[in-house]
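Aim 2 progress update. The chain analyzed this quarter is reproduced below.
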Amino acid sequence: MSAPTGLAARLRRLPTGGKFALAFLVAIVALNAIAWALDRAVGGEAPGGATSSSIATGDDGLAAYASLLGRFDVRVERQRGPLADAELDPGSTLVVIDPGDLTDDDLAALRGFVESGGHLVAGGRFSDRVLDAVLLRPPSWSPDGPDEFEGRISVRRYADLRVRTAGAGTFTDSAGGTPVVARDSEALVVLAAGVSSEVGAPIQVTLLADASPLQNRLLAEEDNAAMGLALVDGATSVVFAEGVHGLGETTGVAAIPTGWKVAFAELVLAALVAVWARARRLGPPEQQQRPLAPARAAYVDALAATLARTDPPAGALGGLRTAARERLRRRTGLALDAGEEELRAAARRLGWPADEIAGVCGDGDSEEALAAAGRALARLERGDG
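Predicted C-alpha cells:
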C-alpha cells in the first residue's frame, strides 16, 4: 500500500486530541447544514398561514388571539374539514372570520348551529354569504373606514373601549342590530345581531366588519385584546372554523406537509451516500492467508526470460562455460590444462547431447548455446551423465 500523501498524510500526523477536535468541528458543521436544509424545506421560522386562521403566525393570523383565550381558561378547539361534516356543539362559540369558499351545505350547517342556540362570531372580508345565510337582514358593509373606534361593551367589566383597526371595513348601518364598537354611530366595527330567525327563535351572531383588531398585528394595540375577550364573554369553549381556511381532516402520515416529506427523503439519501462513501474507503476484504513466493520453476523461467533479454549473452555464457568445464574435468579426472578435444571426448563418454557439448566446449555465443551450457551445468550439478 502506498504511503498517504497531501491532506490525508497531514491528517494522519495530527495528535489524537487534534483528530477528536477536528471530528467534532466537522460534526457541528454537518448538523448545522442538515438543520438549515430542514429549515428551508419546512418554511423556516418566518411567520405565515392563512388569513384569520387561529394557527397562522403571520401578521393577519389569529394565533395570538387563540392563545389569549386559552390564558383566560377558555377551551380552544379547531374544526377541521367541511363545516357540513362537523358536529357543532350549540353550547360553544363558533368563530368564522375571513372564510374561503363555502358550499351551500356549509352555510346550512351554520344556520342550523345558530338556530340551535349556538353563538356565532363572523365577519371580515368575504363573509357576505355567511351573513346572508344566518340573518334575515344583514347590515351593509363598506371597505372604507377609519382606523380608530370608541364604544361601550354591554358586558359589565368592559366599558369605554378604544379599538384600533387597519381600516379594512365598516358597517354603514346596524340593520336592527346593536352597535358594540362604533364611532359617532356612523362607522360600526362590531355589531350584536340579536334578531329573530324565520321560525321565531332568537339567534346570537356577533358581526365584525374588520377582523384586524383580533389579528396578531393589532391585538396588543389599545383595547383590542379586551374587545376580543368581550366577544366571547361567558363562553367556556370557543371553536375556530379552520376548514374554511383549508385545514383538512387528514391526520397521521398523510397530514405531514410535503416539505417535511421532502426533507426526510433528503436526509435518508444523504445517509445512504455517506454509507456508500465509507464502504468504498474500507476496501476489499483481507486475505485469509499470507501470499507465498512464486514456485522455483516460475522463478527460473523469469530469470531465464531476463537473461534472454540481455543481448549479447556473452558475459553470462563465459561464466557458464568456465564453471561447466571445471566440473567436467573433476568429474572425468582430466587435467586442468586439458584441451577442447579432450573435453568433447569426455562429454561424449558421459552421453551428453551434441548441443550441450557444443554449448560447453564450443565458442559460439548464441542464445541456444547459452541455454545448452546451462542444461549441461545443471546435469553436472545433479550428478547424471
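Residues 297-382 form one domain. The longest helix spans residues 16-41. These observations will guide the mutagenesis experiments scheduled for the next reporting period.
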